[in-house]
Write a sequence for this structure.
């Protein structure tokens, strides 16, 4: 039995973001997805560096060394990202997720960190193989949230583990798995998994046989869901070359590189059909979108310029209407970011439309950026989106909770009797009354402190909004 992979990779910038910070790679021995983070100037660099390191593994590796080789390569990528952040201050805070499969003989080595995912379709059943390294997933594991609550949680994208300028010694999930003929693997960034359900993913993977068409269909589903994030998807089928039908063409071994690691990193593929997307993502520098023979030099000119002028005017009117509708919609959105010092609630979108800002601050909170843990500070700097003002307030409330956890306790001075000696008068209003228990909120849960309250005692991690 000779194992091989039939694969396809796709990536789309989405409908909101201006650049693609995802990167993907699909080859005969390696499949990898990286979702960059760190703002406009950092996420694409981090994911590209990670994929650039990993693609060196796309060759036959001894089965006894494959897990160690994959782990070391990911750690080397982390060191390269750290070096870039050190040498280029504008890239401070950059990072990336990684989900990678390395195939050797009849086995797969899997390395995972972050919230990109790997799914496996085997014998008609689709399962999520990886576990997200997010704050919400931790609450799920501890039984503090239900699946339904997790889907609507305002901090569902807060990462606890990533590669990059956050943790010098990242903790990877590593495993070794058999490569069964007939298996279909799907690797994706959260721009896809966050919008398309497991049930829909599984049904699509079963119904569409061609890997490229299947990947296109999944990307289109995420775009129809709003496409607020970059979308990257890799589909790979495990096949036995010895059992291919007579005359059937064997799988291609040419690598496919998509997203920020590719030359066409920010091409808006959503405006094209599936075939044009696939061609654009894998096109070499020497290729052009249209062949010269598609045009003729002796086409007669239009008899009158008026039809074209009317068409242009109508198009401009439609574009103006669409832009106004998009702007009106954007002003109903909210996100949590920073003014450089404090956590700020903004109304609108985090992007600007040329010289036109699409957001404005509506509340500057008392939470200082330096009070937050590094991961949450990173998320605030990259902005945390919210569907409405109430969701934005819930995000701020949880950031305030995290800030209080790290805040030092402020000692309270003991009252004196005027001679410099402390008084022990139990009737003093500043003396605590140890015999009176604290009032308990209904249900045995402590009431949530207000935004202006400061305390040295961490709140119950079980509280959720």
């Amino acid at each position: 039995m000779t194992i091989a992979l039939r694969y396809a990779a796709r990536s789309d910038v989405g409908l909101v973001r201006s650049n693609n910070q995802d990167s993907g790679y699909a080859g005969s021995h390696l499949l990898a997805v990286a979702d960059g983070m760190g703002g406009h100037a950092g996420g694409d660099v981090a994911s590209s560096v990670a994929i650039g390191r990993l693609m060196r593994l796309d060759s036959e590796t001894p089965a006894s060394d494959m897990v160690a080789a994959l782990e070391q390569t990911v750690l080397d990528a982390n060191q390269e990202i750290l070096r870039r952040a050190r040498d280029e201050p504008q890239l401070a805070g950059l990072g990336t997720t990684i989900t990678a499969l390395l195939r050797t003989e009849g086995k797969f080595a899997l390395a995972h960190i972050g919230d990109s995912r790997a799914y496996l379709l085997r014998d008609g059943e689709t399962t999520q193989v990886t576990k997200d390294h997010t704050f919400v997933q931790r609450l799920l594991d501890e039984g503090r949230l239900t699946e339904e609550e997790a889907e609507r949680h305002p901090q569902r994208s807060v990462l606890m583990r990533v590669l990059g300028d956050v943790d010098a010694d990242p903790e990877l999930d590593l495993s070794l798995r058999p490569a069964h003929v007939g298996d279909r693997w799907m690797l994706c960034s959260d721009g896809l998994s966050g919008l398309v359900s497991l049930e829909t993913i599984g049904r699509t993977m079963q119904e569409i046989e061609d890997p490229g068409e299947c990947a296109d269909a999944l990307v289109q589903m995420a775009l129809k869901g709003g496409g607020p994030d970059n979308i990257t998807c890799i589909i790979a089928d495990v096949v036995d070359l010895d059992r291919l039908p007579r005359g059937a063409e064997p799988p291609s071994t040419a690598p496919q590189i998509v997203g920020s690691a590719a030359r066409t990193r920010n091409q808006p593929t959503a405006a094209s059909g599936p075939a044009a997307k696939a061609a654009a993502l894998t096109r070499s520098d020497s290729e052009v979108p249209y062949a010269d023979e598609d045009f003729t030099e002796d086409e007669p000119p239009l008899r009158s310029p008026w039809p074209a002028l009317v068409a242009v005017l109508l198009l401009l009117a439609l574009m103006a209407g669409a832009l106004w509708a998009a702007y009106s919609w954007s002003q109903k959105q909210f996100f949590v970011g920073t003014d450089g010092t404090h956590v700020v609630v903004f109304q609108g979108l985090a992007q600007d439309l040329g010289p036109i800002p699409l957001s404005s601050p509506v509340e500057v909170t008392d939470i200082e950026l330096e009070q937050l843990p590094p991961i949450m500070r990173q998320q605030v700097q990259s902005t945390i989106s919210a569907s409405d003002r109430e969701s934005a307030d819930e995000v701020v409330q949880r950031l305030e909770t995290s800030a209080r956890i790290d805040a030092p306790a402020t000692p309270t001075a003991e009252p004196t009797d005027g001679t410099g000696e402390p008084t022990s008068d139990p009737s003093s209003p500043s003396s605590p009354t140890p015999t009176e228990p604290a009032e308990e909120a209904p249900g045995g849960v402590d009431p949530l402190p207000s935004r202006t309250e400061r305390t040295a005692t961490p709140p119950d991690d079980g509280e959720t909004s």
